[in-house]
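PROTEIN DESIGN WORKSHEET
SECTION A - STRUCTURE
LENGTH: 379
TOKENS:
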């Protein structure tokens, strides 16, 4: 086996000593390892591009991409290694199902950054539209801060103008009555400039004077309020000029743009969908190859090796258990024997003490009081 084949065998997690005894499986595991390797390469590219879109640093992106690719490569290698071929396919599928879910998640993680790169020009155009919409929203929000105050001032100006207009309408009405009295089209119906006309003319002159006084009183206030509106609008325009235009160029913004493009264009939606399916197929290919293939000589050899190790381990554990049980039994029997011997020795000692006391009592007669005392002593 050359160096490249050996490297792909390492990527597949295959045991070289077993492969040497099963040459028919050499190419199979080399293909599986190549798939795992290139999946890690795709992951490195995707991770590097994702980080570059955030930090705009080539060095950081390359370092992160390499670390990310190695992590995905290690996960894929473990997933492939952990699938063991047995005689029960349903059991194999049950064992592989969690690993398939993990492989699909990894495929999504790899596919999205690459999709962002493939649709980069379309995404950049969509980002411009999104920036404009965001700026418009910010502008509306800023204008909304000043609009209530401006509306209140305009309402005050309208009320003041309404007061002036009411005086003007009253003046016009009284002037019209005086004119009609003078030309005979109204009032008394006689064309003359008599006392009735003069009275109506006097009322019209008073109304004109009230109008002039009202205008002189309210016009300065109206001008002041109009000046307030101009100052507010000037402040609002200054804030609009100083407002920073949002720059959307991050990873999350590009994902939003891709989603927006998918909702607008079915072509991009289906293209994104099939790219994701492609990476899912690449990521899960080694697992499906192992699941759908029959047990090969490599699997039998591996099973023999694992069974042998398992049996040796079981035998060793049983031996240790037997030794431990024997030692425990020996300790129990020893302790029991020691206890029995101690009890027998204690009994013998008590008998000797009692016999010695009895001999002493025989040699020296006791009084009744001493006898009672000795009786209490021996119970």
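SECTION B - SEQUENCE
RESIDUE ASSIGNMENT:
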């Amino acid at each position: 086996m050359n160096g490249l084949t050996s490297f792909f065998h390492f990527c597949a997690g295959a045991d070289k000593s077993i492969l040497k005894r099963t040459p028919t499986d050499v190419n199979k595991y080399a293909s599986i390892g190549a798939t795992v390797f290139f999946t890690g390469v795709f992951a490195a590219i995707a991770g590097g591009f994702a980080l570059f879109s955030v930090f705009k640093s080539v060095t950081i992106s390359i370092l992160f991409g390499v670390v990310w690719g190695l992590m995905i490569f290690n996960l894929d290698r473990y997933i492939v290694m952990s699938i063991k071929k047995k005689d029960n396919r349903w059991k194999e599928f049950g064992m592989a199902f969690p690993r398939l879910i993990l492989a699909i998640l990894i495929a999504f993680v790899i596919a999205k950054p690459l999709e962002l790169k493939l649709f980069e020009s379309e995404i950049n155009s969509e980002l411009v539209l999104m920036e404009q919409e965001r700026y418009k929203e910010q502008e509306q929000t800023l204008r909304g801060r000043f609009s209530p105050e401006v509306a209140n001032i305009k309402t005050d100006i309208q009320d003041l103008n309404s007061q002036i207009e009411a005086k003007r309408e009253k003046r016009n009405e009284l002037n019209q009555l005086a004119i009609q009295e003078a030309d005979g089209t109204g009032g008394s119906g006689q064309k003359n400039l008599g006392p009735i006309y003069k009275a109506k003319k006097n009322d019209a002159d008073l109304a004109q004077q009230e109008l002039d006084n009202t205008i002189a009183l309210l016009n300065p206030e109206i001008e002041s309020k109009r000046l307030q509106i101009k100052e507010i609008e000037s402040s609002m325009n200054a804030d609009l000029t100083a407002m920073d235009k949002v720059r959307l160029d991050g990873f999350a913004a590009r994902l939003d743009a891709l989603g927006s493009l998918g909702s607008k264009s079915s072509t991009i939606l289906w293209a994104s969908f099939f790219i994701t399916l492609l990476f899912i197929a690449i990521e899960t290919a080694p697992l499906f190859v192992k699941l759908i293939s029959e047990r090969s000589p490599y699997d039998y050899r591996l099973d023999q090796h694992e069974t042998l190790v398992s049996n040796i381990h079981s035998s060793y554990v049983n031996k240790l258990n037997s030794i431990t049980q024997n030692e425990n039994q020996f300790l129990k029997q020893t302790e029991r024997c020691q206890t029995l011997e101690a009890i027998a020795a204690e009994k013998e000692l008590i008998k000797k003490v009692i016999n010695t006391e009895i001999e002493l009592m025989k040699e020296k007669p006791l009084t009744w009081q001493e006898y009672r005392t000795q009786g209490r002593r021996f119970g």
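SECTION C - NOTES
The mean pLDDT is 78.
The chain has eleven helices and no strands.
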